[in-house]
């Protein structure tokens, strides 16, 4: 019965060595190192930014788990290299000398790349937490004037329809653009609320952050309320306006 695990172990070791041979022979290190340099440059710029725009927020939030995953992969790679070096040291032979030398060089490169990934993960986490604290301390995550303005426009649009005013072609074309913008705004507000709640959940696990958690949840609720205004009032009003224009007979349309 002991022969089966031993055979499996031998197979795993040979498979690992084959994978490592592919790694050192393909030499993809420069591309990965260049990628990390580019990521470090962008992260450094965002670390000094006064605030994050929605695109930067999305990038930071997605970059951290990606970096953590890369760091874990490189940690496994480093462990495999050390295991391979140990195995090869017990079966010395001239045919493996070049492979051993390549593995030692790869060990240095992998360690540097792992350090880059860990730095990147820590930096993006720091940027994200800085932004969460900034938003939590802000008076409003979404300016109330935006919701008020959109509500006003929605009311005026519905009043125009109630008066029987027919939308002309130019206004209908503009209404389509406005609706598209409103949908993007809704998505942005939903993303903001989601990010704030995820941040609140993370900080909730840390002692002494109760005030921050409450502030983040409050700002998330504000973003939800603003999004409801966009969806329930503004976007719905624009759609009614467009529907009214498209329902007119061709002769009645300007």
How many separate domains?
Answer: 2
Total count of helical runs of at least 4 residues: 7
Beta-strand residue fraction: under 5%
- Intertermini distance: 88 Å
What is the number of strand segments?
Answer: 0
Shape: elongated
Largest sheet: none
Q: Mean pLDDT, nearest integer?
A: 82
Supply the helix-strand structural class: mainly alpha
Name the helix and strand elements from N-terminus to C-terminus, one letter apiece.
HHHHHHH
Helical percentage: over 70%
Mind telling me the C-alpha Rg? Answer: 29 Å
Low-pLDDT ranges: 248-254
In short:
With 254 residues, the chain is mainly α.
Give the key terms:
254 residues, 2 domains, mainly alpha, disordered C terminus
Characterise the protein shown here.
The chain is mostly helical and 254 residues long. The protein has two domains: 3-137; 144-252. Helix content is 83%, strand content 0%. It is built from seven helices and no strands. The chain has helices at 3-26, 29-47, 54-89, 97-137, 144-162, 169-204, 210-246. Helix 2 (29-47) packs parallel to helix 4 (97-137). The longest helix has 41 residues, at 97-137. It is elongated, with a radius of gyration of 29 Å.
């Amino acid at each position: 019965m002991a022969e089966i695990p031993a055979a499996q172990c031998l197979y795993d070791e040979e498979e690992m060595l084959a994978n490592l041979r592919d790694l050192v022979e393909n030499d993809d290190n420069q591309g990965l190192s260049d990628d990390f340099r580019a990521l470090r440059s962008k992260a450094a710029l965002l670390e000094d930014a006064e605030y994050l725009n929605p695109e930067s927020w999305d990038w930071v939030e997605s970059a951290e788990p990606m970096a953590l995953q890369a760091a874990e992969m490189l940690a496994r790679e480093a462990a495999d290299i050390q295991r391979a070096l140990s195995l090869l040291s017990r079966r010395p032979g001239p045919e493996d000398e070049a492979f051993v030398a390549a593995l030692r060089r790869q060990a240095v490169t992998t360690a540097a790349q792992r350090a880059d990934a860990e730095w990147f993960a820590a930096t993006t986490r720091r940027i994200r937490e800085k932004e969460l604290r900034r938003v939590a301390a802000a008076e409003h995550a979404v300016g109330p004037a935006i919701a008020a303005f959109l509500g006003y426009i929605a009311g005026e649009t519905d009043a125009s329809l109630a008066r029987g005013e027919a939308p002309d072609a130019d206004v209908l074309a503009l209404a389509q653009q406005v609706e598209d913008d409103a949908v993007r705004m809704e998505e942005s507000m939903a993303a903001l609320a989601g990010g704030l709640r995820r941040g609140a959940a993370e900080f909730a696990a840390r002692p002494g952050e109760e005030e921050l958690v409450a502030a983040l949840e409050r700002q998330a609720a504000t973003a939800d309320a603003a999004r409801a205004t966009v969806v329930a009032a503004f976007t719905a009003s624009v759609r009614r306006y467009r529907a009214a224009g498209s329902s007119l007979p061709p002769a009645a349309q300007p």
